[in-house]
Amino acid sequence: MSMIVRRLSRAATAGLVAAAALTAAAHSAEAADTLGSAAAGQGRYFGTAVAASHLGETDYAATLDREFSSVTPENEMKWDATEPSRGSFTFTSADRIVDHAQSQGMDVRGHTLVWHSQLPSWVSPLGASDLRTAMNAHINGLMGHYKGEIHSWDVVNEAFQDGGSGARRSSPFQDKLGDGFIEEAFRTARAADPAAKLCYNDYNTDGVNAKSNAVYNMVKDFKSRGVPIDCVGFQSHFNSNSPVPSDYRQNLQRFADLGVDVQITELDIEGSGSAQAADYTKVVEACLAVSRCTGMTVWGVTDKYSWRSGGTPLLFDGDYNEKPAYDAVLSALGGAGDPGDPGDPGDGASCTATYTRTADWSSGYNGQVTITAGAEPISSWTATVTLPAQQSVSSLWNGTPTWSGNVMTVRPSWNGTLAAGASTSFGFTAAKNGSDAAPAVGSCTAS
Q1: Are 99 and 137 in contact (CB under 8 A)?
Q2: Which of 171, 302, 347, 425 is deepest in the core (most CB within 10 A)?
């Protein structure tokens, strides 16, 4: 598909989503009861890393669409995924993520242009001159494909060593092109897409230490010489051996004082319960305290797909239940969280949601979602309905909806209390707008 056709298609999709949002606004003003909406109330984004292979999973897509306002492709924009053979680019998986994000009105962070890891085998053997040409061609090819569509790019990733030296990491780029490769990559990136924010991204730079000092000195030098750099990304992978530093906020602030934005780009915190929740709160509060901290991204939607899944580091468990850390983040963002919501490990309440089309005509249909309590009585329930992008809801009864893109989150209006095994339902009328596809009903949660 040509770039022009692809962008026109995305523009049409965005228009349909906007129309759906206007319809939703007639029913209920969206409360700040999701991560994305609460963060937006603070002038920030709240994003997540996304894998294209999981977008077909109903609960994954529903949670993504409901909660987040920004996405970062987890692997799909890396060099081995986009240019496996020299000069031959492939964007299928990355396009799938970008298309999905844009259909939901989400921003996209590009990750990553130049990195020593996940390189295709043809890169490392190149000589210096050839490598420089290849690096610049890769930046131009990837950024050119998405020109005007990516909010921020991780231009160079993880170029400094761990430990106390603050030295550059050995890599094909460093070893053959020298210290100047980072500056050259940023200058090439600015020319490739002048509107995109250009970031340097690294890990173990969250507090003041030798590594973060080295990055700080590089950014200070770049700013003094007019090298184009707009932001610094702090990956923020934490666990008991690498906890949230006591000077985390101060470190973010000193970078911001150089005249760059700071972004928390790959946040995850191993643990569980109140201790994990407290650590997430520290991170969010630090970002909110720094005016140039423009947003936060957790590195994955659900624990079961995390790169460190055994450490259960994310905000949703393997069944997409909200963890105490979720409630803590939502509360820190000023959202309308409820610590007693389902997903609390101590809450035995449960429910199921099933969908039926009760009436059908050429331009629309009526749908009904039946909520059934589990083995214990419940006092409230929540169900999500993800509509095909073309469709819009004109009316809903026996429930109270809020919206995020084309995801409708429904809570009871009068019918929240159910005895064990008892059922209730809510219904809605939808306009097909050319799509007869059935909506996807996410998992029901209860309290």
Answers
A1: no
A2: 302
3-state secondary structure of 253: helix
Can you give the three-state secondary structure of 99-148, one letter per residue?
HHHHHCCCEEEEEEEEECCCCCCCCCCCCHHHHHHHHHHHHHHHHHHCCC
- 25 three-state secondary structure: helix
Residues 6+ apart with CB under 8 A from 209: 164
pLDDT along the chain (447 residues), means of 10: 45 40 33 85 95 97 96 98 98 98 95 98 98 98 97 98 91 97 98 97 97 97 98 97 96 97 98 94 95 97 96 96 94 69 50 90 93 88 85 89 78 86 92 90 79
Count of CB atoms situated within 10 Å of the CB of 370: 17
Sequence-distant (≥ 6) Cβ neighbours of residue 411 within 8 angstroms: 380, 381, 382, 399, 400, 402
Yes or no: say if 382 and 338 are a contact pair by the CB < 8 Å rule.
no
Considering 74, 266, 270, 322, which one is annotated as catalytic?
266
In the annotation, is 57 catalytic? no
- State the maximum Cα–Cα separation within the chain, in Å, rounded to a whole number: 73
Is 322 noted as a catalytic residue in this protein? no
**Residue of 67, 76, 158, 184 marked active site:** 158
